[in-house]
Amino acid sequence: MAVNKLKSEIFGKDEYPEFVLNTSRFDQRSFSGRLRHFMDITDPRTLFTSKAKLKESIDLIEAFKLGSLPAEITNKQLWEAQKIKQAIIHPDTGEKILAPFRMSGYVPFGSPIVVGLLLPNPTLRATVFWQWLNQSHNACVNFANRNATKPTPMKRFLVGYIGAVTTAVSIALGLSVLIKRANRFTPATKMLIQKFVPFPAVAAASTCNVILMRNNELSEGIEVYDANENAVGTSVLAAKKALKEMAFTRAFLPAPILLIPPTAMALFERTKFLRRFPKMHLPINATVTTLSFAFALPLAIALFPQISQVKTSDLEDEIQQKTKESILYYNKGL
After folding, report:
1. Does position 83 have pLDDT exceeding 80, yes or no?
2. 8 A C-beta contact, residue 164 and residue 209
């Protein structure tokens, strides 16, 4: 994976600076730069990219690699071509990621599920269904965007999937039952608290999901690279660092998505408009949820760089003996 951007100067006002292969045009050392980068990565417009446009983008990047780029090609065209390629093609496998499981498809395909999670007064059956569907989607997204420098056995995928679904359903049902049996709460208070039940269930399950699915990395490690993108070796310690970052990201991601809509809807429900037009509850809820999702996704995955760095002295002795570089890099996945 590329890491040259981590050593470059911060970009100035030029929106499309000099193109550098496999890097971001935004400064990845700052949170704002990573946020802008991941807003690009999650841009749902790339879902509508045609096969011809994808091929054109890939060919343009290949021409740049080979030094056979036509003189009229601009930096903007190169950055846009790379954006399209990175949104659709997995960086490790080179394979096309299915649209529902791309980061750019996470919000469009995931929003209806989140709306289902936040429906008022859910039955136990509805709670189980929406938690199952949410974790099924999360598991596929985690698998599709994993660090694939090492193969992930299907058994590992199934263990992560079953563990996440079990965790989500157990927590959601447990909290729902406790709330219903709590006699000291009024019906209105119970209804309000019930709206926030999905958050701890989804946060715990999403963290469980990514840890279980990528647990093999803790024994096999992930590849680390030097500043020239040369693979130095495989590190378990780098894998531990990557998983910690991923677990924190997955725990944080549901917070804005599952806390903002219930809070906003509690306020909307007090308005004369919603009392007069109760059928507008679902479309308003869906709109607030989708906007919260679109805001939360790039915010969460921008907490850490996708291409992260680690001190060589913090890695295994065999890694230290293979390089004189003081800093190495790895792809933590998305």
Report:
1. yes
2. yes
